[in-house]
Amino acid sequence: MKSYKLAAIAVVALYLHSSCAKSSEQDGLGHHHENPGHIDSHDPDHEHEESEGGAHKHHDGEITLSEETARDMGVSVATVSPSEFHEVLKVSGQIVPSPDGQQTVSARSAGIVTLSRGATEGSRVRAGQTIATISSKGIAGGDPNAASQAAVNAAKRELDRITPLHKEGIVSTRDFNAAKAAYEQARAAYGGSPSGSGATSSIDGVITRLLVRQGEYVNAGQPIAEISGNRRLTLRADVPARNRSFLSTITSANFRTASNDSTISLTEVNGGLLSDGITAASSGGYAPVYFTMSNNGSIAPGTFTEVYLIGASRQDVITVPVGAVTEQQGNHYVYVRGDHECYDKRLVKLGGNDGRRVEIVSGIKAGDKVVVTGATVIKLAESSGAVPEGHSHNH
Questions:
Q1: CATH number for the domain including 274?
Q2: Which of 292, 317, 342 is the last residue of a domain?
Q3: Among 277, 302, 317, residue at a domain's last position
Q4: What is the pLDDT of residue 195?
């Protein structure tokens, strides 16, 4: 890891060396910026200004970086402007399957289970696909499915016999309706196959659990398999009891999983608040808040997450992207561009953080041009900034 960091610093230093030399030649100010990543050390009360002879005076902590190098290294800036932000509460949470995306396939009759070919955990199934068949053949007491089939056949024959007689007026409508009802009842009780009843999926999805083994005896109604459609997922956020007052203000949330560096907004996955947890009983000192969302294909049920609960809105708040902030020895900094090639390191105080943007309470103001991408490049330039031999700022 150490060698990687040294290599990265060397690359940045190489870029900075060439760019600052070019800048010196172009501006004709007599500066020998052989180490373009250096920090000028002068009176901190001095601003960047011109003195006699056209030389620059740099205040303490200033970092120089040419426009070309900044562009090549992915450094970009944005002008700070107050905007709407929200109160934020960061909590832990978990992605859980949505109830309407889950199904338990159960046995329709008692008997011996025969799993369908390819019915294994992790395999995909379609709505209406048979997961297993259950047969009672050879079991003491007879095959109830065979008896049901015989009842269907008998009722069908009676209905076929009575139908033409009813049309001719020989059989009453009451007798006809009774025969028709008997047939419907017999067909409803029949499993659907002379070799056994079928256990089928009612949704498209994936078999997440097989609850029986091949050849196992099951009773009617016993679960055979669990299927997850995963079209909709539920995000559960666990709010500590001490923060219950925040529950009534929640409008949305952002979240980040352990396997994903980026923060996902619920609006990006067609999500919304499902239950605010106000009326939910606390469990283990936490009140659960639930959100529903679509599965974008990168979120697995059971994944633990960091959740940024979004509360009441506030106006005229100064914020920057989370990636614009760097940390050193417990302090937080952003880099502000002064002119096209000079950057100042500003100590800032942070406020709320919604996982994407962070509030800046102090340290910068509206109109400042803050480095929003590539802050690490500026930080490396700063840390590698030894003043080279022959460098002079005698004005």
A1: 2.40.30.170
A2: 317
A3: 317
A4: 52
Task: Write out the chain in H/E/C secondary structure.
Answer: CHHHHHHHHHHHHHHHHHHHHHHHHHHCCCCCCCCCCCEECCCCCCCCEECCCCCEECCCCEEECCHHHHHHCCCEEEECCCEEEEEEEEEEEEEEECHHHEEEEECCCCEEEEECCCCCCCCEECCCCEEEEEECCCCCCCCHHHHHHHHHHHHHHHHHHHHHHHHCCCCCHHHHHHHHHHHHHHHHHCCCCCCCEEEECCCCEEEEEECCCCCCEECCCCEEEEEECCCEEEEEEEEEHHHHHHHHHCCEEEEEECCCCCCEEHHHHCCEEEECCCCCCCECCEEEEEEEEECCCCCCCCCEEEEEEEEEEEEEECEEEHHHCEEECCEEEEEEECCCCEEEEEEEEEEEECCCEEEEEECCCCCCEEEEECHHHHHHHHHCCCCCCCCCCCC
Count of structural domains within the chain:
3
Q: What pLDDT was estimated at residue 91?
A: 96
Whether residues 326 and 300 share a domain: the answer is no
Domain that holds residue 260: 85-98+231-317
- With beta carbons less than 8 A apart as the criterion, state whether 183 and 151 touch: no
pLDDT for position 197: 76
Which of the residues in the chain have pLDDT under 50? Answer: 1-58, 386-395
d(CA 350, CA 90): 14
210 within domain boundaries: yes
- Considering the domain architecture, whether residues 169 and 238 belong to the same structural domain is answered as no
- Do residues 291 and 252 share a domain? yes
